[in-house]
Design brief:
The protein has about 625 residues and is an alpha/beta fold. The protein has 25 helices and 16 strands. The protein folds into 3 domains: about 170 residues, Up-down Bundle (Substrate Binding Domain Of Dnak, Chain:A, Domain 2), CATH 1.20.1270; about 150 residues, Rossmann fold, CATH 3.40.50.2030; about 230 residues, 3-Layer(aba) Sandwich (Rossmann fold). It is about 50% helix and about 10% strand. The strands form 4 sheets. Strands 6-5-4-7-8-9 form a 6-stranded parallel beta sheet. A 6-stranded parallel beta sheet has the order 13-12-11-14-15-16, with helices on both faces. Strands 1-2 form a two-stranded antiparallel sheet. The longest helix is centred in the N-terminal third of the chain and has 31 residues. It is globular, with a radius of gyration of 24 Å. The structure holds Broken Fe4S4 cluster.
């Protein structure tokens, strides 16, 4: 085991406290302080029973006032709020996917973006029934981009990607009327249904919530993931490092943050440009160090091995080190607090997207046409800023862990081929994994996803659940900020196999993998539903029969609710460690935790006690095993 040990939550927190001390010297604010200012939270909002959908109100439901002015009750109000929350998340992920499709339309052999994985493009084209014979790969990319963009507004039919699911699942979706039609339509329908004077039945609002989520996971997010792989490469295992110790005192530090790899890939390219490296030397730096935060970090870590500085609640910490020359952002999960915070240091806060414009930032508009030129401009601005660093404010916590990342579905299938002798199948079967599960070497698999949320001690729920699951021989796949929590703690170091039960440890040794597998960013949860579909097809079982569970223990965003809805709609029981804002309606709680099981053979479990949440996940896995007689 050498000298491997996990980094503890207490060590994370001690580093953060030390950084906040630096912040105090320069008058910086922090999320920890703002949480105190915002507590206690509004109870009506927490329970989902405040309606602001028309201007007769706002109306709030109490025992004395059980209906709003229009007559809508708590179930209608909580249901509408839940559906709008989902639609916000579905729109956000899907618009990210749309941008990727537009970028695909600009690929050219001598352009800013190229086709890096032609085989994947050919596979998707065949899947969609597009003729590929004799076609130039770039012409094919443009054709596929146009077809993908049509998925957003097609007048008839349902999403093309649904055919990846087993027949049984597709039938459930058809029968429940939750097959997503055009991606944009499901968001528009959600907004229409929740307008004043429309749906107020919990059942109808939950059904459309599932359908909107499906338009994300089996629509927009899948476009985002698949065509990102085509342009930037399908991830394969690669070594990297994680936590704030990846920042370098003697180098120019550029932090990339957000979601769309189109920006971060270019920043990485230009940070290796000889002219920029020369410039860095001329200002006294040893070089240029790029590190990531949030899902952008996942994107560039799993394709390039770029180190991961941190996850959602670490984004202020990278500036507080005093060693961040530029934090460069695109869209989603970016704290507006970064603007005023950056002004307390020498850091340049560079916004790049019309979708995420913020005060106190330098706006350098970035798009696929000016990508090369503007990425170079951004890298130059960061390098030239090195001389403005204030050495007395620099403190980089010397904490980092090794991590192996980049387990796309394709990579998982490939590495697990090495585990059993009976199947050596290079065509991509999941049978070795199924054999591990049926033989009991592995008890099952869990997908841990999602954010941090100050309602939960940051990262603790992610890390404690992972430790519990792997100790019980449950293999864990991760995406989003959950993945970075694992990497920062050390759970993506292959040495973490010693924390596993005997079965999982053996699998880790044979396949040479860490016990928790990094599958990417939050749009990449679409990889997880494809993997579940593949497992079901290869085993001849329904997805809901497999000993698989999903969990978002520290979720906070609208995107996370959209994700939860498509994961559960795929037939995977989903466990939440933070309550969705529906508790003011017993009908909404019932539909989400029980009622939907009749439609999709899975439902939510909500449990804020993390120990109990882990027990419930393990119990569900064992129930599924018992039902299969394995
Ligand atoms: S970045 S949505 S905090 S996972 Fe995708 Fe992390 Fe959640 Fe944002």
């Amino acid at each position: 085991m050498g000298d491997f040990r996990l980094t503890t939550i207490e060590e994370f927190e001690a580093a953060t406290d030390r950084l906040i001390e630096t912040g105090k010297k320069v008058g910086a604010d922090s999320w920890q302080l703002r949480v105190k200012n915002q507590t206690p939270h509004c109870k009506f909002g927490e329970q989902g029973i405040c309606c602001r959908i028309c201007s007769m109100g706002p109306c709030r439901i109490t025992p004395k006032a059980p209906r709003g002015i229009c007559g809508c009750d708590a179930h209608g109000i909580a249901g509408r709020n839940f559906l709008r929350f989902t639609a916000g998340g579905a729109a956000t992920h899907s618009d990210h996917g749309r941008e990727i499709c537009h970028t695909l339309h600009t690929v050219a052999p001598d352009g800013n973006y190229k086709v890096k994985d032609p085989e994947k493009l050919l596979c998707i084209a065949k899947e969609w029934g597009v003729e590929t014979e004799g076609k130039d790969i770039y012409d094919l990319a443009h054709e596929m981009s146009e077809l993908a963009l049509l998925e957003y507004g097609k007048p008839y039919g349902v999403q093309r990607w649904l055919k990846r699911a087993p027949e049984h699942t597709q039938k459930l979706w058809r029968d429940a009327e939750i097959e997503p039609r055009a991606i944009d339509r499901e968001v528009s329908t959600a907004m229409h249904m929740t307008h004043m004077g429309n749906s107020c039945k919990a059942e109808a609002l939950v059904r459309q919530s599932l359908r909107s989520g499906m338009s994300d996971g089996w629509g927009g997010s899948m476009c985002g993931t698949e065509f990102s792989d085509v342009m930037f490469g399908t991830p394969k295992p690669v070594d990297t490092e994680a936590n704030l110790g990846v920042m370098k005192e003697d180098m120019v530090n550029i932090i990339v943050h957000g979601h769309d790899p189109s920006l971060s890939e270019m920043i990485c390219d230009y940070s290796e440009d000889p002219e920029m490296l020369e410039l860095a030397k001329s200002v006294g730096a040893k070089g240029i160090n790029v590190a990531g935060v949030c899902c952008t970090s996942n994107e560039v870590a799993m394709r390039r091995g770029i180190p991961m500085a941190g996850n959602f609640l670490q984004q202020e910490n990278v500036v507080l080190t005093g060693a961040c020359e530029a934090i460069v952002v695109d869209v989603q999960c970016i704290f507006p607090a970064l603007g005023p915070l950056s002004k307390c240091f020498h850091t340049k806060f560079i916004t790049t997207s019309p979708i995420a414009q913020m005060p106190d930032s330098d706006f350098i508009r970035f798009d696929s046409k000016n990508a090369g030129e503007n990425a170079k401009k951004i890298v130059r601005a960061a390098v030239e800023n090195f001389v403005n660093r204030k050495p007395e404010l620099v403190y980089i916590p010397q904490m980092k862990q090794k991590a192996t990342v980049g387990y796309s579905t394709e990579a998982i299938v490939k590495v697990l081929d090495g585990v059993t002798n009976s199947y050596v199948d290079v065509t991509g079967t999941t049978k070795p994994l199924i054999e591990c599960i049926t033989s009991g070497v592995l008890r099952g698999a869990a997908a841990l996803v999602g954010c941090n949320n100050p309602r939960v001690r940051a990262d603790q729920a992610h890390i404690e659940l992972m430790k519990k699951l792997i100790a019980n021989d449950v293999i864990v796949i991760l995406s989003g900020c959950s993945a970075q929590a694992a990497a920062r703690a050390g759970l993506m170091d292959k040495e973490a196999k010693n924390l596993c039960g005997a079965g999982l440890k053996r699998v880790c040794e044979l396949a040479d993998i860490p016990p928790v597998l990094h599958m990417g960013s939050c749009v990449d949860i679409s990889r997880m539903v494809v993997l579940a579909s593949k497992l079901a097809k290869d085993s001849g079982l329904n997805i809901s029969q497999l000993p698989l569970v999903g969990c978002a223990p520290e979720w906070m965003s609208e995107k996370a609710v959209s994700i939860g809805n498509y994961v559960v709609a795929t037939g995977i029981d989903t466990f939440l460690g933070v309550e969705p804002q529906v508790s003011g309606s017993d009908q909404m709680v019932w539909w989400l935790t029980e009622g939907i099981r009749d439609w999709v053979e899975a439902a939510y479990t909500i449990e804020t006690n993390i120990e109990k949440l882990g027990d419930a996940m393990l119990a569900r896995i064992e129930e599924k095993r018992a039902a299969l007689g394995i």
